[in-house]
Design goal:
The chain is an alpha+beta fold. The chain has a single domain, classed as Beta-Lactamase (2-Layer Sandwich), CATH 3.30.450.20. It contains 4 helices and 5 strands, in the order H-E-E-H-H-H-E-E-E. Helix 3 packs antiparallel against helix 4.
Length: about 120
């Protein structure tokens, strides 16, 4: 897959889409991340794991435990090289999350797709 094709997919994705390297550093994301009010500024170059953990500490112990669970799912996705679909809570909102390992120009990335779950 070409990087431009992947970036185009991310830009057009209706939910939040993040492209993350093996060190949890955000390589690219769409603007929908701002609609969910998680972040006010672009987070390219930031460690998404640290951002989630730090934000969840301010919310409370349950949110922190949920953020740790998300990190574990990221690790499992990298280890198994399989897509993982699940639901996760963040700030008491249920989200559907898809994690997929994609290979772009001989390098692997984690593509994280997040949508608010329908009731």
């Amino acid at each position: 897959m070409k990087k431009s094709e992947l970036y185009n997919f991310i830009d057009k994705y209706s939910g939040v889409a993040l492209l993350v390297d093996e060190h949890s550093v955000v390589i690219y994301h769409n603007n929908n991340i701002f609609n969910y009010q998680w972040y006010d500024d672009p987070i390219v170059g930031c460690n998404i794991s640290n951002l989630f953990l730090n934000n969840s500490k301010n919310i409370g112990p349950l949110a922190y435990a949920q953020a740790l669970n998300c990190l574990e799912k990221d690790r499992i996705c990298w280890l198994t090289q399989e897509a993982i679909f699940n639901t996760e809570y963040y700030e008491n909102v249920l989200y559907t999350t898809i994690r997929i390992i994609v290979k772009v120009e001989s390098k692997e990335y984690l593509l994280l797709l997040i949508d608010e779950a329908s009731e």
